[in-house]
Design goal:
Number of strands: 3
CATH class of the largest domain: Mainly Alpha
Oligomer: single chain
Order of helices and strands: HHHEEEHHHH
Number of helices: 7
Mean pLDDT: 80
Number of domains: 2
Largest sheet: 3 strands, antiparallel
Helix content: 40-55%
Distance between the termini: 88 Å
Length: 183
């Protein structure tokens, strides 16, 4: 009788180990799916491996960078808010747009279907999509063109989170302190 009870206990432990292993696998798969959905480190280089070499900017670094590319001081807060909500200030983000399914690239999550070419220069910005991931200057120039043609409404992240100017954080102090700019 005692031997039988020990076998039942061992079977129970084995069942628990299997359940825990299955739950762990499900957790990992869920985590990977969530990361892929929100675009965390999805960019694959030519070898098919993940590329972790992108830059991540601080909010002040982004404000100064945008200003150095000709973004007016009065619009810096909108642009910093936009980049924060589109890519979390990371250059190497590639994510599938939830509404229409196209891949979006880089800091500004620029649509590959419209603005860049997959393998060769193309689209409205006449660039490769990979260029949006590797060259901040190219990415900002393309975003400026999109803004010139469509305004901030081209970015759902700006519409959803940045459109109300009264709620935007002010990042102009980053520029004023750095370049001694007066308004």
């Amino acid at each position: 009788m005692r031997f039988h009870w020990q076998m039942v206990q061992e079977e129970g432990k084995e069942r628990h180990r299997c359940i825990i292993a299955v739950l762990l696998v499900l957790f990992i798969l869920t985590l990977v799916a969530v990361q892929s959905y929100i675009g965390i480190v999805e960019y694959r280089n030519g070898t098919g491996n993940f590329d972790f070499t992108g830059e991540k900017f601080t909010k002040c670094e982004m404000a100064r960078l945008l200003y150095s590319h000709g973004i007016p001081l009065s619009m810096i807060n909108d642009w910093v808010c936009l980049v924060g909500h589109e890519s979390h200030f990371r250059t190497n983000v590639v994510a599938r747009h939830p509404a229409w399914g196209s891949l979006c690239y880089g800091l500004f999550q620029i649509s590959g279907d419209t603005w860049c070419g997959a393998e060769i220069r193309g689209g409205g910005c006449n660039i490769t999509c990979e260029g949006l991931l590797k060259d901040v200057d190219v990415s900002i120039s393309c975003a400026q063109l999109i803004y010139k043609l469509h305004g901030f409404h081209a970015w759902q992240g700006w519409v959803d989170y940045c459109q109300d100017r009264n709620q935007l954080t002010d990042y102009t102090h980053c520029i004023k302190r750095y370049w001694n700019v007066t308004t």
